[in-house]
Amino acid sequence: MDAIVLSGGRALRMGGATKAFLRLGAETFIERILATLRPFFDSLIVAADTPGPYAHLGVKVVVDEGEVRGPLAGLHAGLKASGSEYCFVTTADAPLLKPALVAWLVEHAPGCDALVPSWERGVEPLCAVYARSCLPAIEKVLASGSRVVAFFPFVRVTFVPAQVLQGLDPAGASFRNVNTPQEYEELCRAWDAGLAT
């Protein structure tokens, strides 16, 4: 199984800063995420707007095809670049990804087209496992610039209930993404105080 880290987007709410390279402690977000993923996966893929800034990370970097941008396009590019039947997917702005959650999803993915956590705010399609067999369904909706969940009606999706997830990541930290300077400051304060979980 491979892992895909989605790191595209213009980060307008973050003032245009590339969120992957924000720092949390001694590491950037992307460094933390890749370190969490390495023990579990054969290959790591970053889907980004431009490959250059990621060259030092020693991973494969892919760029969205065509004019459509966004998480669904990144997922599409990553799945196409992978040689694995399944790929775990996360985003570069969620630096608190929990190994226990990753391990559980990897173990339970076989037999699903998509294995997707369902947390308090709803489904979490950007911390999930997808089969490469999802590519035709993704391509059906990709041109419309749809949200990731737009292709779900065309594949077999298994949702992981919150009761299961709470045993793996009690605070849902794996789903906590950083979109604004305020959210970043709050995360850094919690990290410095030893409260970021």
Tell me about this structure:
- With 197 residues, this protein is of the alpha/beta class.
- It has a single domain, classed as Spore Coat Polysaccharide Biosynthesis Protein SpsA, Chain A (Alpha-Beta Complex).
- Strands 1, 4, 5, 6, 7, 8, 9 and 10 form an eight-stranded mixed sheet that branches. The chain has a two-stranded antiparallel ribbon with strand order 2-3.
- Helix 2 packs antiparallel against helix 4.
Please give a quick description of this structure.
With 197 residues, the protein is α/β, with parallel strands linked by helices.
Q: What is the count of DSSP helices, taking H or I runs of 4+ residues?
A: 6
CATH topology: Spore Coat Polysaccharide Biosynthesis Protein SpsA, Chain A
**What is the strand tally?**
10
Portion of residues in beta strands equals 15-25%
Give the domain tally.
1
Strand-pairing-aware structural class: alpha/beta
Overall pLDDT score: 92
CATH class wording: Alpha Beta
CATH homology superfamily: Spore Coat Polysaccharide Biosynthesis Protein SpsA, Chain A
Q: Measured on Cα atoms, how large is the radius of gyration?
A: 16 Å
What's the helix-strand series?
A: EEEHEEHEHEEEHEHH
Second-tier CATH architecture: Alpha-Beta Complex
Cα-to-Cα separation, first versus last residue:
26 Å
Sheet of most strands: 8 strands, mixed
User: Stretches where pLDDT falls below 50 for ≥5 residues?
Assistant: none
Residue share in helix: 25-40%
What is the overall shape?
globular
